[in-house]
Amino acid sequence: MTIIDNAVYVNGSRFANPHSLEQTYEVMDSCGGMAWIGMFRPDAAEMKSLAAEFSLHELAVEDTIMAHQRPKLERYDDVLFTVLRPARYIDKDETVEFGELHIFTGKDFVVTIRHAETPGLASTRTRLEADPRLLAMGPEAVLYAIMDQVVDDYQPVVNGLENDIDEIEDQLFAGDPTVSRRIYQLSREVIQFQRAIHPLREMLERLKSGFVKYHVDVELQRYLRDVEDHVESVTARADSFRQLLQNALTVDGTLTTNRQNEASAAENQQMKKISSWAAILFAPSFVGSIYGMNFDHMPELHWAFGYPFALALMFSVGLAMYLIFKKKTWL
């Protein structure tokens, strides 16, 4: 059985703790309370039971069984189907882990289905149970409280990503060779985070548009507007992260190009030095090779000053080439 926590509430207080779905249905029929069924990866048989009891639409049931859904809010007659993508920042690995939460809300029931270990909804349930007046407002109060927790849990993620981006700025100018890969990894995480939070704006607008039609309590309306404010804040910061990472990637490309140019310039300078000395040493070798050809008619071979002349010529040519290369800053 994949039931994590299951309770029936009457007037905002926990009335019963059924151990199975069938007991939950019986208690609801007998006391007329609101059921909040929390489940973790239910199987097809359990979803079939829930669908039959609460008239859940087959498309929503299929989405829940298949999972891997984008954040969305869909209404099927009197049942609201909501998909959220909670997130948490893992300090040890400096990564963002995303979950998936499906919520069915009807006239007298809430079914929450998690497809990941996090987030646990125990704290949300405890907070609502501590305020019976709020919980007595029905399934809408539970839905808004869950959305509030999910959005509040985005704040540590935003702080963690911001810290990672600050570290990247330090790595950029320190010449860390791994910074490019880290920028791409962070960009991927920010994009996933944006995919989790951007649909919330439209979802909240749709909930607000039903305030009058579904007679939503004024206090719950204020509650939802507070969630909307937090979504706007988180969204704005996440969008700024995307731009910062794009700028960081541009700077990294520029710095990498500059370092490559500097390395190339240093290599060119070394090649100039090697070429210059090779040319300087070639001059005396050339003169020596001429007089080493052993021809019979070479006047300088029998000249008294031939040897000093050859040495002077070698030295003069070598010195002249040295001065030329020195002037051109090759040496």
Can you describe what's shown?
The protein folds into two domains: 254 residues, Beta Polymerase, domain 2, CATH 3.30.460; 63 residues, Methane Monooxygenase Hydroxylase, Chain G, domain 1. It is rod-shaped, with a radius of gyration of 38 Å. The strands form two sheets. A seven-stranded mixed sheet has the order 2-1-3-9-8-5-4, with helices on both faces. With 331 residues, the chain is of the alpha+beta class. The termini are far apart. It is 62% helix and 15% strand. The mean pLDDT is 87. It has nine helices and nine strands. Keywords: Cell membrane, Ion transport, Magnesium, Membrane, Transmembrane, Transmembrane helix, Transport. It is a multi-pass membrane protein. Belongs to the CorA metal ion transporter (MIT) (TC 1.A.35) family. It is found in: Cell membrane; Membrane. GO terms for molecular function: cobalt ion binding; cobalt ion transmembrane transporter activity; magnesium ion binding; magnesium ion transmembrane transporter activity.
Q: Find the CATH topology of the largest domain.
A: Beta Polymerase, domain 2
> What is the CATH level 1 assignment of the largest domain?
Alpha Beta
The structural class is alpha+beta
Question: In percent terms, what proportion of residues is strand?
Answer: 5-15%
Shape: rod-shaped
Give the CATH architecture of the largest domain.
2-Layer Sandwich
> Looking across the biggest beta sheet, what order are the strands in?
2-1-3-9-8-5-4
Report the average pLDDT across residues.
Answer: 87
Helix amount: 55-70%
Output the number of helix runs: 9
| Main sheet specs | 7 strands, mixed
Q: Specify Rg, calculated over alpha carbons.
A: 38 Å
Amino-to-carboxy terminus distance:
82 Å
- Going by CATH, the homologous superfamily of the largest domain would be CorA soluble domain-like
Could you list the spans in which at least 5 consecutive residues all have pLDDT below 50? none
